[in-house]
Design a protein that fits this description.
By secondary structure, this protein is mainly alpha-helical. It has helices at 3-45, 63-68, 76-96, 98-119, 129-146, 149-162, 178-194, 262-266, and strands at 236-237, 240-241. Helix content is 55%, strand content 1%. Strands 1-2 form a two-stranded antiparallel sheet. Helix 1 packs antiparallel against helix 3 (76-96), helix 3 packs across helix 4 (98-119) and helix 4 (98-119) runs antiparallel to helix 7 (178-194).
Length: 267
């Protein structure tokens, strides 16, 4: 195996190791959050619990719900309906968009509660479904905007698994906080547009997708990933360029034709 191929293989192995570490970290954080809300639900089941700390629109005590409502749920069925999508979509956001997640996660955590406190119905709003809807909207829109393989695959995955979430933004079920869902989805869509320049992954080009021919004798023509950084010269046939044009050189004087003898000119 030649030198450029070794460079490309080593870079690919480092990239795969880094991806595995990042995926495990993203999955661990998502599972830790789910464990937190499940633990809080167990504490709430022991007594009245902190369930009264949900969002109550336009009340002073309801402002605390902006902070605590995503952690609290009505019952265990409510918890587990959010747990699986939190793990799946949360891992996708943290793994695929680590830089954007620093803005996306706080926005979809606090933003829906603030919007509901301002314009929501006079009721108790609680649960982590705002996080689910916000991350769902972000992953879907980001995949369509970026159009790279991983982003599109993640968008397709969340649509196939949780496409029915779109009905949750409509006022169909009276006990469902559709205002939270709608606010979170709008925030997720807006952030997908605003942050579309972040987390842009370097594309991988395979040999069968390339039109040029690699010159393995000159490693300086390739970057650390093994891809060409200088153009490929045109192929030469019998000392002439492939396009058939005659070769010219500035350092060679044009040949002169010797004059014909006088008797040849006379004839």
């Amino acid at each position: 195996m030649n030198h450029p191929d070794l460079i490309a293989l080593d870079a690919l192995e480092r990239r795969l190791r880094r991806d595995r570490v990042n995926f495990r970290l993203a999955l661990g954080l998502a599972l830790a959050f789910v464990a937190l809300i499940v633990g809080l639900q167990f504490l709430a089941a022991l007594g009245d619990g902190p369930v009264e700390l949900g969002v109550r629109p336009r009340t002073a005590i309801g402002l605390l719900g902006i902070l605590f409502a995503p952690l609290l749920h009505a019952d265990f069925a409510h918890v587990f309906s959010n747990a699986v999508p939190l793990v799946v979509i949360g891992t996708a956001v943290l793994y695929l968009y680590p830089q954007s997640a620093r803005a996306v996660l706080p926005a979809v955590y606090f933003g829906p509660g603030a919007a509901v406190w301002l314009v929501g119905r006079d009721s108790m709003h609680l649960g982590a479904s705002g996080l689910v809807y916000g991350m769902f909207a972000y992953v879907l829109a980001a995949g369509l905007l970026r159009r790279d393989r991983r982003a599109l695959a993640a968008a397709l995955m969340v649509v196939l698994l949780y496409g029915t979430l779109v009905w949750g933004v409509l006022p169909i079920q009276p006990r469902m906080s559709w205002e939270t869902h709608l606010a979170a989805a709008v925030i997720g869509l807006a952030l997908a547009f605003a942050l579309r320049g972040r987390d842009v992954r370097e594309p991988v080009t395979y040999d069968w997708e390339r039109d040029d021919t690699r010159d393995d004798d000159d490693p300086s023509r390739f970057d650390d990933w093994g891809w060409r950084t200088t153009p490929v010269p045109a192929a030469r046939v019998d000392g002439a360029p492939a396009n058939g044009a005659p070769e010219t050189r500035d350092d060679v004087a044009p040949a002169r034709t010797a004059p014909a003898p006088d008797d040849a000119r006379a004839r």
